[in-house]
TrEMBL record:
Protein name listed in UniProt: VPLPA-CTERM protein sorting domain-containing protein
Keywords: Membrane, Signal, Transmembrane, Transmembrane helix
Signal peptide (from-to): 1-23
Membrane-spanning ranges: 217-240
Domain of life: Bacteria
Taxon lineage: Bacteria, Pseudomonadati, Pseudomonadota, Alphaproteobacteria, Rhodobacterales
Length: 251
């Protein structure tokens, strides 16, 4: 299966590094080991929370589900794996679907406790305590360090951010063969106050069987207009054509 890897984006990221190399807010760099697997045998856990002081809010919740049409006979499964138990130099979040299987991975940052792995309504929308992700108006975008991506895959990416004042905003994107790593705050639809963030969650849903992908970092960065112009000229990242981005209004 064809893959996108960091080799295709070295020039683009090196060029972007100059305008965004300031100290950034780290959401997660996935160095703590955590694995959840949705497996028809019912043995492997499909949800867990891990405590990690390097993760925003001190904890990461992960849950996966497998499409009911998955290959039950061959124990088809979907896996979310943070870090690597064998090669610790690869600090990544990997999303992997077995042959012929589609699935969904959900990652939640809402402090310790809160989300119970079943009910989305259990997410502690104030669990992060009102973090100012803008750093006083200086930062304006999430950065996703994509390291691996099936070029022939189709992925639905959804993200929601809550604030401590009862507001929230959503973003959804159909990712095909592009890997624009930047998601600006103004691309969200809703009324969240990014200066008082209480919880963050994002979901990865494979619409094509056997999709695999990985990221090694989620952070918040300042993105000047020059960087956006550069990405546009590159066609997203590494010369790959732009994906279809669409905003989804808050329910």
């Amino acid at each position: 299966m064809k893959k996108f890897s960091t080799a295709l984006s070295v020039i683009a990221l090196a060029t972007l590094a100059a305008p965004v190399a300031q100290a950034k807010t780290i959401i997660d760099h996935f160095t703590s080991f955590q694995k959840v697997t949705a497996d028809p045998d019912g043995v492997s856990p499909s949800y867990s929370e891990i405590l990690d002081g390097s993760v925003i809010g001190g904890a990461r919740d992960m849950r996966v589900t497998t499409d009911p049409s998955g290959d039950i006979i061959n124990q088809g499964k979907t896996t979310l794996l943070s870090s690597d138990s064998v090669n610790t130099s690869r600090s990544e979040l990997t999303f992997s679907n077995a042959s012929g299987v589609t699935g969904t991975g959900l990652i939640v940052y809402d402090g310790v406790g809160g989300y119970d792995g079943v009910d989305i309504g259990s997410i502690a929308t104030g669990g992060l305590g009102g973090i100012d992700l803008t750093k006083g108006g200086k930062d304006n975008a999430f950065f996703f360090g994509v390291t691996d991506f099936d070029l022939n895959g189709v992925l639905e990416f959804e993200m929601r951010v809550w604030d401590t004042e009862g507001g929230f905003s959503d973003y959804t994107e159909t990712v095909t063969i592009t890997l624009n790593p930047l998601l600006k705050f103004n691309e969200f639809s809703g009324d969240v106050n990014f200066e008082k963030v209480g919880a963050i969650a994002f979901a990865l849903r494979s619409n094509q069987a056997s999709f695999d992908g990985a990221i090694d970092l989620i952070s918040v960065v300042p993105v000047p207009a020059s960087a956006l112009l550069l990405l546009g000229a590159l066609g997203g990242l590494g010369g790959i054509s732009a994906s279809k981005r669409r905003r989804r209004k808050a329910a």
